[in-house]
Write a structure and sequence with these properties.
Elements: E1 2-6, H1 11-14, H2 19-26, E2 27-28, E3 37-42, E4 48-52, E5 59-60, E6 76-82, E7 87-91, E8 94-98, E9 103-106, E10 113-117, E11 126-132, E12 140-142, E13 148-152, E14 161-167, E15 178-184, E16 190-191, E17 196-197, E18 201-208, E19 216-222, E20 225-231, E21 235-239, E22 246-249, E23 254-261, E24 270-271
Parallel strand pairs: 1-3
Antiparallel strand pairs: 2-21, 3-4, 4-11, 5-10, 6-9, 6-11, 7-8, 7-10, 9-12, 13-14, 14-15, 15-23, 16-22, 17-24, 18-21, 18-23, 19-20, 19-22
Length: 278
């Protein structure tokens, strides 16, 4: 397994960052490496962001020294979302089949977690999100049919979208992870606009289903000091609680959002008025 450590910069520091520094601190570009588990341990609410791409062999989620525990999930919970071909996640001997865009919540205390693809030529791409936990919720698969759906935006503002809540108090309870997926309608390109911040929670965005020659311009930073990252398919962005998190693509796309922090209230946000953006 590959593990990278990220320490969060202060807002005052980010103001002076150039493009390379912004990308180095906030962009995670190489999540899905064939035949490997790749993890980024962020000190933003101690979120671990990762990818597992099993090809011919099964991959295991091994313990890492950064958690200080004998097993990876001794004091953590885990969300797994498949953004590739069909695959399987085995948790303590129980197999969970995950198709494209299926999710799995794995509760604290699971000792053995492994990943496999049904077809090594069309491997599963398991997106991994983990946060510290205090209670063991049951492990459970959540499909698109199970998700709670919300319709937001409009064609006129190019942000017509469906929000699908997978790990959420109304669907699958957790300790602090809140995870979902937003699908933009054809012709719509804006996400999370009008924008907001939520200083009580950090967030991670993963952009998927983008054509190879398409990009999303992900906007971040304090409302009065915005910056941007140019993001390609299957790249993720770390978003501190003080930062806006919005994007506009050159084509419609899907993104997976995940939050961890003080609460699991999806609507606990601080709206930012359009005239406040700079």
């Amino acid at each position: 397994m590959n593990v990278e450590i990220r320490f969060p910069p202060r807002p005052d520091d980010v103001i002076a960052f150039d493009t390379d520094e912004l990308r180095r601190e906030f962009l995670i570009p190489d999540l899905f490496r064939p035949g490997a588990v790749s993890l980024t341990y962020s000190h933003l609410d101690r979120i671990i962001v990762g990818g597992a791409v099993p090809t011919a062999a099964t991959l295991k989620l091994e313990a890492i020294k950064e958690t200080g525990t004998a097993n990876f999930l001794d004091r953590r919970e885990l969300a797994v979302i498949n953004v590739g071909g069909d695959g399987r996640v085995v948790v303590d001997g129980e197999t969970h089949a995950l198709g494209n865009k299926d999710a799995l919540y794995v509760g604290m205390g699971a000792a053995e977690v492994s990943f496999a693809s049904d077809d090594s030529n069309k491997p599963a791409k398991f997106y991994l999100l983990s946060a510290p936990a205090h209670f063991r919720h049951p492990t459970r698969r959540v499909t698109m049919a199970d998700a709670k759906k919300m319709q937001l935006g409009a064609k006129e503002t190019a942000n017509e979208r469906t929000i699908c809540q997978f790990i959420h108090p109304d669907v699958m309870p957790s300790c602090q992870l809140v995870v979902g997926m937003t699908l933009l309608a054809p012709g719509s390109v804006w996400n999370t606009m009008p924008c907001h911040i939520h200083d009580r929670r950090s967030e991670v965005y993963l952009y998927v289903d983008l054509p190879a020659d398409a990009r999303v311009f992900h906007f971040m930073g304090e409302p009065s000091e915005t910056r941007h990252l140019v993001v390609a398919n299957e790249e993720a962005v770390l978003s501190p609680g003080w930062s806006i998190h919005s994007g506009c693509g050159t084509a419609n796309y899907v993104f997976i959002w995940a939050m961890a922090g003080d609460n699991v209230d999806y609507k606990d946000v601080d709206p930012v008025a359009m005239e406040e953006l700079r």
